[in-house]
Amino acid sequence: MCQEIRICIVCNQKLPLTEEYYAKNQSTNTGGDKYFRTDCKKCNKVKTKGRTLAYKNAGQPNYPDYGYNSETKKTENGYPCDCCGKTNYSKKIVHDHVNLNHRGWVCDGCNRSIGMLGDDQNGLINSLAYIYGIEQRHRDEYIEVLIKTTELFKKQNGDTIITG
Hints:
alpha+beta; two-stranded antiparallel sheet; 4 helices
């Protein structure tokens, strides 16, 4: 019998697809089906330590108090997601994976989406360029204009732009 192998998306190691090397998650989209994570246990442990350290570095910020229910993990009075603004969703603490700065609180959908795009500006900007139909060969030019526009907006409005 041949053992199935998976390549960890973080360290690129080829490892047997077993619970010894990969943790299982439970899907909320398919009625609770269990599946193997795409990152190996070793890489996931490092990631979890980074999240914990970012939380500590930020002074262990409290969950925004807008009617937060610890049982449902939702804000009943509608604290908006820092990214999309939707309310009544469970929020996740978000951090920069490079410098471990606390970014804020976002809903699970935004957290997953940003993560799937690489958790950096390039992934988000390339996706935006794709949505607007900008060809790959023009993306660098688009990115340059977008960054300059964002920096100008920040200066004019005194806003903080989180990078990383």
